[in-house]
């Protein structure tokens, strides 16, 4: 069977297996005998052209944004990894074995895709915060991507190979412990489990630097809101508040583009919950701009919508293109990608609603005549930890925290006890995962150099 079909055939209903927890654990144990840890961590050198794959993926993007995208990607090995998830998915599916234990995965669980966000009660929470690649897939891909990102980021921070090796082993052990802990919780307790800033400060009670960083985030994150966006990204034009223009990243829309996105936004209003629909009736749209963000998604169609409330307050929402998973884009024409986009917005927000403990109440999806989008608040107490500011001890603590959070997110899937059954008896899980991550990191470095050479001669 074509391995690409394995990825595409996974649907939400594959998570709803009608057997109990103990039976699922036994299925995981049996899978460990059939496809042992040794097999899923056996590294096989890849045979493909990463440059062609990246170019194929970028053919679906806005050409004028590609130079800026390349500048962001090529800062270092870690940023390159962030911008090339499609390459790693291809390698994962075409080399070696997979457990074929389906859970909802992030699909791009590198270290920078964890961060802080607000709960409805305005508590500051920590968890996964990017779901563009979310899908039902193999749990080990998320863990492998997390560990490769830790390896590359640790190297950039100047840690020795020996120290990074130890950090990676502890990261894998933390994922295993996280799975064990999640397995011990009742379903509803697991569903409502969250990681707030107070718990993180307790987690880091012996780490002065981490506590210092967390306290700084706790102080500034509440100010990351629509008012801050308005202050930074808007100006008065003929007595009216408008977004600042800075092409190609921040580009004004022509009248036809503006109407298309406005119509999509009005369609979004109809898709959200009645409570949010009523809340949005207090606001009117006063400006829309195309504004690109991120690294991997930089180059896709992304917009900011400025709304003014009846009381004069502001709200800024982001309308972000929901393209098919980037791996799938490798084999699609632009027209085929557009045709598949119809359901992609729903895929992204479904992934977020399952994997993130509490999600943005404004989360929703919409579409134009040829593209699909999802909508969320542009800023809502969102923040992240700057990996370059961490010393070795704090960096290790952070990667372990991300691994535990990732395990908890995976365990929201009813099939997750199979993961517990699969890894619970393995004594070499962390060692094998670490060896694989280190081997693949070298492949990322080679791909980076090849793409850098291509850009130089392009």
TrEMBL record:
<protein>
    <recommendedName>
        <fullName>DUF2252 domain-containing protein</fullName>
    </recommendedName>
</protein>
<dbReference type="InterPro" id="IPR018721">
    <property type="entry name" value="DUF2252"/>
</dbReference>
<dbReference type="Pfam" id="PF10009">
    <property type="entry name" value="DUF2252"/>
</dbReference>
